[in-house]
# Entry
Amino acid sequence: MFRHILVPVGLGAGSLAAARHALNLSRWLGCKVTLVHVLEDGEASVCEPFAQMVRGARRQPTVLLVEPHSQTIGAVVAQTALQIHADLIVIGCHDSPQQAPAVLGPAAQSIVADAKVPVQVVPTAALVQGKPWLQRLTARTHGL
# Structure
């Protein structure tokens, strides 16, 4: 099964949903979780959002901050997944359904395109709110 999950995180609700989902999976599967954030120019501190993402985790995940060195986010995440021997990449959807007709943003699309391991997409709470069938599905998978 999965031994190591990689979660590329930004600072939005989609990343929070992906991190929580990966941490729940790690609880069930007993695997490691690594959160990776690709730094952008002039980015402020990311400590508080990461602290919120890992709150309540039984096993604290590894957190990596990576410089892109003129690579796409997808290339950086794919390279990181290979380096840490990740079995699965978990990503979040857009932060709100109004952002675009596509479920995945440009960064998530590049991650899916460049990944060499399976990628799981997690819906955000905002996306789930607008789709009753998705509410029922996420309630079942999260034991509610």
Notes: The chain is about 40% helix and 20% strand. The longest strand covers residues 32-38.
